[in-house]
Amino acid sequence: MFKFASRNFYLFSNVVAIIFEFQDDAVIKAGELSVIVSAIEGETHEDVIGSSNGEAYQEFYLPLAGVIEVVSVSVGDHEWEAVASLADYSAGDKVYIAELDAWGRVRLTFGDGVSGQIPREDERISVVYRVGG
After folding, report:
1. CA 10 → CA 7, 21, 34, 43, 97, distances in Å?
2. What domains can you pick out in the chain, each with its CATH number?
3. What is the dihedral of CA 40, 41, 43, 49, to 10 degrees?
4. Per-residue pLDDT averaged across 103-114, rounded?
5. How much is the CA Rg of the chain, to the nearest whole Å?
6. Is 90 within 8 Å of 115 (Cβ atoms)?
7. Which of 112, 125, 115 is nearest to 55 (CA)?
8. CA angle, 95 as apex, 87 and 108 as ends, to 5°?
9. Secondary structure letter of residue 24 according to DSSP
10. Is it the case that residue 99 has pLDDT exceeding 80?
11. How distant, in Å, are the alpha carbons of 49, 59, 65, 74, 84 from that of 105?
């Protein structure tokens, strides 16, 4: 039996590498030549991107380029919800918006205390996201 040591694999097309991650362990049994596994495009990263200063409309940028999905954003120990617009939410709603800026970087913006909650001062902002392409 052979078990892959890495959960990542790369597919090369001409000169472009496409990154995938296995969703399950891939095990090839003795006597078999192949295995079918589930995989998703991209590579998962988890980063602390800053701490709240307690002010309205705080913005934080993800550190890597090529983001294909923001999986989750946590403020302190609480996961917050991605929304299309802060205007549709009230002061107590734990929401943020994720947008691409003019340079292709992902910017997360939090509320002002009227439209979306302001993260409490000194709370850590962490994000799980996928990079690929």
Report:
1. 10, 9, 17, 10, 31
2. 2-41 (no CATH), 44-131 (2.40.30)
3. -100
4. 94
5. 19
6. yes
7. 112
8. 95
9. S
10. yes
11. 13, 12, 6, 19, 17
Closest CA to 59 of 2, 3, 106, 92: 106
Paired tokens of 128: 């799980």
With a threshold of 0.85, does the pTM exceed it? Answer: no
- Dist. CA 95–CA 28, nearest whole Å: 44
Q: In 3-state terms, what secondary structure has residue 87?
A: helix
Residue range 23-43: mean pLDDT, rounded: 76
Spell out where the chain has E strands: 2-3, 8-13, 16-22, 27-28, 39-41, 43-51, 59-61, 67-75, 78-82, 95-100, 106-110, 124-131
